[in-house]
Structures are given as structure tokens and as C-alpha cells.
Amino acid sequence: MQSSAGQKEYDFVIVGSGLGGLACANILSMEGHSVIVLEKNHQIGGHLQVYSRDKSIFDTGVHYVGSMDEGENLYQFFKYFGVLDKLKIKRMDEDHFDVIRFDDGSEYPYAQGFEKFEEQLISYFPEEKTAIQTYCAKIIEICRKFPLYNLEVSNENYQMDDNVTGLNAHDYIASLTDNEKLRNVLAGSNLLYAGVKGKTPFYVHALIMKSYLSGAYKFIDGGSQIAIQMSKVIRQHGGEIRKHKKVVSARYNERGEITEVVLDNGETVKGKQFISNVHPAVSIDIFGSERFLNVYKNRVQGLENTISTFLVHISFREKSFEYLNYNIYQHHIDNVWDGVSYDEETWPQTYFVCTPYISRTDHYADSMSIMTYMNAKETARWSDTSSTVAEPGERDTEYLAFKKAKEIQVIKKLEEVFPGISDQIKAVHSASPLTFRDYIGNRDGSLYGILKDSGSTARTQINTKTKIPNLHLTGQNISLHGILGVTVSAFITCFAFVDKNILVQKVKNA
């Protein structure tokens, strides 16, 4: 960056290099705009970040991806971005990419593709054929109401259609059948959106389920390759990405437009348009709370976030544990929706298990990731500390002891699913809500940002446009979280600058 006098003014300054920021930078640089992405951390990619311990690679957020069969929406988006053929992916098991497992040892697999999924579930619940068929038809019907997920453009804002957004996931599934086990199986992967019984809308469940049923894949050797490949495309089109650049405030002209952002080291970056890929509540802090209407500020800052997580990574002794080409959603409770409001004594009551696919170990698993819910309140006493590669800090021995105790609790539960697994473990590492808070840049380590609420849909909707004329928002709080949801939100953000009909056509023609 040049000194202030002859400083370059970018067409777009993007704050945060999570997938939303990278996707916006990709779209806009491909359209010929000058773009710079500013990232406070040492690694780009937000939830796409990986880290290495004991020669094992661990994903922090992306454990598998959906909609990657040929012609599906994410497949087309990645093709448009010019990264599809560079991504190393492995298709998960056809008949069981996800397995919903219960305390009694019973297992119910999800098969890929709606027909197989339906057929297989009916074989477990023959008397519930109508309920299962109705459920699948409803998912397809709801997903049709979201144009961009079908690579179509609409002038209507379906996000606000209460008939769609007001339908509650738990209640709708419960209305289909009295069979408790089937209800639990249909909602069994609700860790994917941190489902809350009376709040999570059915459309969130539907869009995510349809995505995974349309091609479930793992990233070979970690999900950070998305960020790496996208950053290459951005640079090929003249875009810039700068790490260790923490944006702390902004300066304005007399028309109330941002002229430049200020970094924590005093540097400034000038721009015409600004896009924040940071949580909306944190964006308000950065860009100056006095610039936003009180009613907006109070609403956004008062919104409940989804719960955080405790993530345990274990490395295995060589060739001791076979690779699983599927995930397990394990529930030790009677109702799969109750894991969010867990009891600390019997925690973890519900958790996700996966083994990353590492090319060099192939048939054997190099490691395993176990993800379970954790309320940020549990780590609140250390909330004034921070520890990242970019901003190194030490947390006390009490915190390390807390993590250790939690790791032991998780592994003890894991023994019930995989007896004897403790003998195969070489090393254990974990990440708490504080880790996610520091690396992702939200206030409480929330897994998926703002909690959507079917009871007040308009309140939990965040518009990409803000009161500041040249500040737009993007990321998981706009449309939906996850790789697909965030990619869609980046397109919604960019529609303010690029003709949406032309842009979506480019994706379809990719």
C-alpha cells in the first residue's frame, strides 16, 4: 500500500477473508473492478481455515460439502469461480454419507439422492411411507422458493415470504408423524444448523438437507484449498489480499460516505465501495455505531446468535483406525433437539464425528474430529484474553485444565460408540468458543452466526445494504451459513454492483 499522498483508491475494499469476502472479491475482480481484501488473521478463509498438529491436518469448520454433483448449484458456482477442477474432493458413501446413531446403538443411514434417501428410510419405517414421501416433497417444494439456489433470478424477495420462512422445522417434522424415532432421524443432523426447537425455520433445514442429498463430498487434505484456489483467481484478476490487517474504524466525507478504513497500526486504505464480511454487530462497532439508526443498531446487537462449539481433534497411531467415508451424528438423548440446551453433567449429549480424508494414509484415518455444542458462558471467565497466530496471547493453566477435562469427557462418550478407541489415540487437541471467537471475529464464537427464528422472520433478516451509502454486508448472516449459503449471500451482495441477470447467466453457462 502506498503512503497517504499518492495512495491508491480501490473500487472495493472488503473487510474479512471468510468465504463471503473471497466470493465477493472473486465476482468483482472478474468483472474488472480493483479489489482489496483485508484480513486480521494469519490465515485467510474464516471457517475454511485448517491447522496442523503432530503432522495431522485439521479443519476448523468445513468437514464436508453438498450440492457438488455435476450441474448442482455449488458445482456451478465453483465452476464459475474457475476453481472447480482444482479442488480435490472425494465423494462420500452412496448409501450412507451420514449416519444418525442413538444411545441404544441403532443406526439410520442417509443415502445420496432423494429417491435413494426416501427408499432407504422407508425400508426402516415401512409403516411411515406417506410421512417420509411428504417430507421429501416438502423439502423440494420449499427449496424451489429460493431462486438463487436454483440458479434463477427473481424480483421478489422470497426471504420475506412468511409462508416459507414462518414454517418451523421441529413443528413441521412433528406434524408428519407420531413416530418419535422417525422424527429424531429426520432431524438427526441438526448440528449442521444448531437447530433450536421453537425457532429454527424449516427452510433452513430444507436447504441444507437438499444440498447434502445432491452430492456429499469431503475435501481431500482439508477445506482450506477453497480459500487458496479462490485467492489465486482473485490475484489473477488483479485483486489484492492482505493478511495481518485489522480494520478498527472508518473515515467519512460530508455526504456520509466512507472514504477509507483505518487499521490498528494506523495505516489507511481508501475505497469507493466497502463490503464487510464481519458479523453485523461487529461491523457496527468497526464502522461507528453513531452512523447507524438506533432501531437498526438495537435490533442487530440484540439478536441471538447460534450456540458455539467445542471441537476435539484426535490424531491416531499409524494404521490403527480405518477411515470412515461417512459422518456420524450421535445422540445420547431421547430428543435430538435437546442437545443445544445441554446439561453440563451429562455433556456431550449429541455430537458430530468425522474422519478427514488424507491422501497419504488412504485406507486408514489419520485423525478424527468430534464437534459438539458448547455455550460461550462456559468460557466467559477467559473472555478478556485472546490467542491467535496474528495476535499471540497466553491463556492460563486453568483454561488448559478446563479444556483437558472437556476432552476427557468427549473421549469417554466416544468409547461408547468405538470401544477401545482410546488405545488408538496418539494426541488430542481441542478448540473452544474462544478459539472460534478469535479466529472468526464474532463476539461469542457462534457457530453459524445469527439464529434464524420462524416466529419473527423479518427481525432476523439482515439486508446487504446499510444506512451508510457505500457500505454493504455479506457472509453467513445474510442468506444462510455453510459453503453454499455464504456463496449465495455473496451473489446477493454483488447484485448491487453487477446486473443480476447477466451474472446468474454466467454461472449457468460456466
Structure description:
By secondary structure, this protein is an alpha/beta fold. It folds into three domains: 222 residues, FAD/NAD(P)-binding domain (3-Layer(bba) Sandwich); 106 residues, no CATH class; 141 residues, no CATH class. Strand 1, helix 1 and strand 2 form a beta-alpha-beta unit. Helix 1 packs parallel to helix 9, helix 1 crosses helix 14 and helix 2 crosses helix 15. The longest helix is centred in the C-terminal third of the chain and has 21 residues. The protein is globular and about 65 Å long. The two termini are 34 Å apart.
Layout: helices, strands, pairs:
Blueprint: E1 9-15, H1 19-30, E2 35-38, E3 50-53, E4 56-59, H2 73-81, E5 89-91, E6 98-102, E7 107-110, H3 114-124, H4 129-144, H5 162-165, H6 169-176, H7 180-186, H8 202-213, E8 217-219, H9 224-236, E9 240-242, E10 247-252, E11 258-263, E12 268-276, H10 280-287, H11 294-302, E13 308-316, E14 327-331, E15 350-354, E16 367-374, H12 397-417, E17 425-431, H13 433-440, E18 471-473, H14 482-494, H15 500-509
Parallel strand pairs: 1-2, 1-12, 2-9, 6-14, 12-18
Antiparallel strand pairs: 3-4, 5-8, 6-7, 10-11, 11-12, 13-16, 13-17, 14-15, 15-16
